[in-house]
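Final report, Chapter 2: Outcomes

The project's central promise was a pipeline that accepts a single protein chain and returns its three-dimensional structure in a standardized token representation, suitable for archiving and comparison. That pipeline is now operational. To close this chapter, we reproduce one record exactly as it appears in the project archive, with the input sequence first and the structure output second.
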Amino acid sequence: MEENKNNFVPPTPDFKFFVTTLTLQATIFLGQIPNPATEKTEEDLPQAKFIIDTLGMLQEKTKGNLNKDEAELLENLLYELRSVYLSKNKGEVK
């Protein structure tokens, strides 16, 4: 096991990796996939909203500075996350 830790090569940091990592966190908080730490599906809508809002802020702050692929990726990820969040949040409104 120790040998594997020494051979770990982290991925090259780039915009796509950053936003997909945040998206993965949001999908965990939306209860779409199990939390890898607990292996349980847990829903935390306030945390999901925070991550989604953070991605939205990132979209606004980087407008005009992203290449076409990066801008489309962020737009598509936000659309999907917001759709899931709204459908789940709608069920909680009373």
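Archive annotation: Residues 28 and 37 are 11 Å apart (CA to CA).
This record, like all others produced under the grant, will remain available to the consortium after the project formally closes.
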